[in-house]
């Protein structure tokens, strides 16, 4: 099927009334949870995962994807108005967005973020349409050795790029790999670490683990917050940016789109990294870098564009190779597996309605978000008045009911609770659950592929370097290790001479929980204080 | 299901009344006296689940009681079978089963049950298997493939849809019984084997000839070299292993059936067997199950029990070896 046929079919799926409703629900939920601090897209998708298996696979992914990119828009609102990143990827927006709001330019900040997100989203969808089908053709020749290289690269990238301390990330990734070995051996069928329990034969259920770590962990953690967030009542005027604003940010939006797209495709990429990279790029390119951190509109436009572009392009590895690029995509991978659809090279040809339908729904969803966001900013901000206790109790109820419904197995409910406590403790001690969950998902793919490679090669490790694709991927991996060391040094240097406020730890800690906590005077996602004080 | 309840209640009364009138002494007359649970050891939406739901709807009409399909996936069926044998052996809890997976699982692992703990009711569908190669493969027939393996023991890799199902075991039997060195490479499901075949990463695949693979064979993307049934299949153009000189290789067919816990009264088993038989003759049910997979002659309780024994004998020495 040609690309144009695909697009036509995609829009036929996306414009189906039921799917339209789900796109709308997805982007609305996404915006709402983007606004609410604490409950990010990962937790929300983890919580809603089991509920999606009663709907069509395409519709389920349309809904979850909507939540994902919707949250990228929503997170901006509180970042700008309250300096409270609603989700991780919006941390960067607080730097200049909040300063703009203080200067009475909250409107243009939100406006340019919405426009940038829209442009980034649409360009990224176009890239997805053009790039994914040929990549899927190529992916058919991907054999087990290539999957080993890819998954290893993914785990490496997520630990290097994803969080503050590489050591902590690596240890979590190692734990994830270890947890992935529970259950029947993929090649011989022998049981491992099951302690004689039939419930552990298939290993720990991914949905239950993810819901525990992200959902319940997040809920428990949010209950520790004692401060109540105060909503801004100040009216927001002049949402539409001025001609000057548009001129200033058009370059940032263009660069952000490309950068976000490229980073999103990389395993371990996605939201936070793309917005950080875009911010760093804009700052480096600027004639007067000292404007950054004081309300430079490029500092809002670039990162906001990039994070939305990356949230779209992150679908490429999932839909063509069956490899989730980041944790949110790992959850969407889970949603497809629950539906009995295994994402992989055959997805585009065998389930075209899923692939093209989801892509087309992204166009529709981005338009909806643009329309939703500009006039309704004030309404969304009011959401911050919902009491955390009410939200938490409700979310916990949905989680427990949801996880039971996947396998009708009460054992999974215990898994959720145990991992919920683990997730909560991890958050308190500064360990990220992201590398754990991604390594858990990729670990079983990697182990199976490694063992298959060994069977195919008769036990020789040469197979990984002699095949051009896996050899190339391994070379990329080596380059990443070298590059990340160099980059980390450079990034630290780039941010050193900026005013310390708000970005002191940027170079090393892109995730909000960590980096804002260490910066005493900025608002933490987890422990918000009354913003009026500043 | 809910709107059906009053109707079901009515049917029960009618069934009970007519039962009383005809044969008041029958022990099975008061069966079923409550709702029937039909456990499915696989996830909702899969082929076994669809079969169970079609069957459940028919049984509901036959037996006059709601049949509640319950998915208890996991552990190659052990989750569902453990639940089954822990319930009252009165015919109100039944389970779908898949052979030879169910047998291979208890042979390889300590799951706490064997076939002795089940009362087989009957066979619902049988899905055959076969050896396929990609269209570009140099091997036009099975002999050519096996000859290549004898020439170079590393040469022929065979992708199978799982580590613990029949295909891996059956491929190892080829190696053992006929001295054809084949390397088994387990994948997860037919679709992955298919991708590996098309990408040239395995030489051949031993797969279920289920609805997801048949289109690729019909379109010529995959070439079917041999099927693992006694007789040739009407819908797939390939010789059987038997006629190619491998008479033992008939154990790869997957059999889906219904079982109850052991100790279930014989009258109840035969009532259920009768209901299954009528399902296999009902056009709507057969259509839902896919007519290609419904056995021409109905296989009842004794036949399914025979299959359990035969499977166990065939694979006892292969598994874990």
From TrEMBL, chain A:
Q: What is the lineage of its organism?
A: Bacteria, Bacillati, Actinomycetota, Actinomycetes, Geodermatophilales
Q: What is this protein called?
A: Putative tricarboxylic transport membrane protein
- Which organism was this protein described from? Geodermatophilus siccatus
Q: Which residues cross the membrane?
A: 20-39, 45-69, 109-132, 152-181, 193-216, 258-281, 318-342, 354-381, 388-405, 470-488
> Residue limits of the DUF112 domain?
20-438
Q: Could you confirm whether the keyword Cytoplasm appears in this record?
A: no
Which stretches of sequence are listed as region Disordered? 499-534
Q: Which UniProt keywords apply?
A: Membrane, Transmembrane, Transmembrane helix
TrEMBL record, chain B:
Transmembrane parts of this sequence: none
Q: Name one Pfam family in it.
A: TctC
Signal sequence extent: 1-21
Q: InterPro entries from the xrefs?
A: BUG, Bug_dom1
Keywords on record: Receptor, Signal
The cross-references to PANTHER family, in alphabetical order and at most eight, read: BLR1237 PROTEIN (PTHR42928:SF5), TRICARBOXYLATE-BINDING PROTEIN (PTHR42928)
Q: Which family does it belong to?
A: Belongs to the UPF0065 (bug) family.
The protein's name is Tripartite-type tricarboxylate transporter, receptor component TctC
- List the lineage, top down: Bacteria, Bacillati, Actinomycetota, Actinomycetes, Geodermatophilales
């Amino acid at each position: 099927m040609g690309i144009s046929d695909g697009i036509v079919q995609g829009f036929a799926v996306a414009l189906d009334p039921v799917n339209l409703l789900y796109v709308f629900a997805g982007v609305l939920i996404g915006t709402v949870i983007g606004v609410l601090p604490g409950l990010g897209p990962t937790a929300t998708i983890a919580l809603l995962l089991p509920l999606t298996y009663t709907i069509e696979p395409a519709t389920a992914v349309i809904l979850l994807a909507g939540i994902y990119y919707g949250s990228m828009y929503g997170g901006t609102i509180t970042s700008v108005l309250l300096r409270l990143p609603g989700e991780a990827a919006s941390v960067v927006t607080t730097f200049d967005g909040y300063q703009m709001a203080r200067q009475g330019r909250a409107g243009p900040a939100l406006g340019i973020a919405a426009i940038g997100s829209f442009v980034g989203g649409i360009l990224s969808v176009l890239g997805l349409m053009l790039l994914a089908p040929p990549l899927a053709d190529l992916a058919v020749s991907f054999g087990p050795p290539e999957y080993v290289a890819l998954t290893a690269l993914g785990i490496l990238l997520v630990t290097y790029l994803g969080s503050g301390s590489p050591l902590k990330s690596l240890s979590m990734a190692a734990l994830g790999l270890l947890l992935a070995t529970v259950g029947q051996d993929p090649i011989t069928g022998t049981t491992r670490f099951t302690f004689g329990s039939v419930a552990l034969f298939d290993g720990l259920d991914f949905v239950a683990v993810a819901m525990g770590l992200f959902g319940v962990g997040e809920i428990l953690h949010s209950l520790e917050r004692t401060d109540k967030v105060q909503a801004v009542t100040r009216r927001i005027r002049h949402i539409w940016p001025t001609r000057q604003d548009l001129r200033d940010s058009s370059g940032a939006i263009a660069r952000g789109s490309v950068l976000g797209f490229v980073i999103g495709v990389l395993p371990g990429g996605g939201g936070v990294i793309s917005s950080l990279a875009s911010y760093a790029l804009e700052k480096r390119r600027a004639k007067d870098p000292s404007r950054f951190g004081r309300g430079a509109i490029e500092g809002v436009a670039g990162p906001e564009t990039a994070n939305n572009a990356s949230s779209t392009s992150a679908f490429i590895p999932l839909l063509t190779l069956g490899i989730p690029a980041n944790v949110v995509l790992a959850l969407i991978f889970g949603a497809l597996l629950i539906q009995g659809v295994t994402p992989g090279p055959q997805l585009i040809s065998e389930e075209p309605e899923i692939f093209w339908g989801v892509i087309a729904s992204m166009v529709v969803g981005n338009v909806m978000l643009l329309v939703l966001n500009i006039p309704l900013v004030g309404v969304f901000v009011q959401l911050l008045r919902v009491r955390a206790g009410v939200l938490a109790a409700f979310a916990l109820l949905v989680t427990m009911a949801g996880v039971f419904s996947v396998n009708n197995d009460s054992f999974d409910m215990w898994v959720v609770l145990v991992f919920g406590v683990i997730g909560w403790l991890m958050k308190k001690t500064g360990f990220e659950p992201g590398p754990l969950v991604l390594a858990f998902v990729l670990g079983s793919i990697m182990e199976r592929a490694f063992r298959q490679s060994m069977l195919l090669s008769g036990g020789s490790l040469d197979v990984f370097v002699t095949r051009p694709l896996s050899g190339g991927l391994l070379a990329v991996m080596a380059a990443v290790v070298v590059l990340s060391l160099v980059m980390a040094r450079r990034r630290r240097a780039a941010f050193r001479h900026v005013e310390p406020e708000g970005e002191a730890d940027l170079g090393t800690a892109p995730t909000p929980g960590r980096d804002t906590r260490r910066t005493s005077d900025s608002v933490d996602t987890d422990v918000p204080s009354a913003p009026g004080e500043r | 299901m809910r709107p059906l309840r009053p109707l079901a209640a009515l049917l029960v009364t009618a069934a009970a009344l007519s039962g009383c009138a005809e044969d008041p002494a029958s022990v099975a007359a008061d069966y079923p006296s409550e709702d029937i649970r039909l456990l499915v050891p696989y996830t909702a939406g899969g082929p076994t689940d669809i079969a169970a739901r079609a069957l459940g709807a028919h049984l509901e009409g036959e037996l006059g009681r709601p049949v509640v399909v319950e998915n208890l996936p996991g552990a190659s069926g052990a989750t569902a079978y453990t639940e089954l044998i822990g319930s009252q052996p009165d015919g109100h809890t039944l389970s779908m089963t898949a052979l030879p997976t169910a047998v291979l699982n208890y042979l390889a692992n300590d799951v706490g049950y064997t076939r002795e703990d089940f009362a087989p009711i009957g066979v619902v569908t049988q899905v055959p298997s076969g050896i396929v190669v990609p269209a570009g493969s140099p091997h036009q027939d099975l002999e050519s493939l096996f000859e290549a393996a004898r020439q170079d023991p590393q040469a022929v890799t065979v992708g199978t849809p799982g580590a613990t199902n029949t295909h891996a075991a059956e491929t190892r039997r080829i190696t053992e019984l006929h001295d054809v060195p084949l390397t088994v490479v387990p994948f997860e499901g037919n679709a992955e084997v298919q991708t590996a075949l098309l990408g040239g990463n395995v030489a051949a695949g031993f797969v279920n000839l289920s609805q997801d693979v048949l289109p690729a064979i019909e379109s010529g993307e995959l070439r079917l070299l041999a099927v693992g049934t006694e007789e040739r299949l009407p819908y797939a153009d390939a010789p059987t292993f038997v006629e190619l000189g491998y008479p033992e290789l008939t154990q790869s067919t997957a059999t889906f059936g219904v079982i109850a816990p052991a100790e279930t009264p014989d009258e109840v088993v035969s009532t259920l067997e009768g209901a299954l038989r009528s399902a296999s003759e009902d056009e709507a049910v057969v259509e839902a199950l896919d007519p290609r997979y419904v056995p021409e002659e109905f296989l009842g309780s004794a036949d399914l029990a025979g299959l359990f024994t035969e499977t166990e004998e065939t694979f006892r020495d292969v598994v874990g070896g």
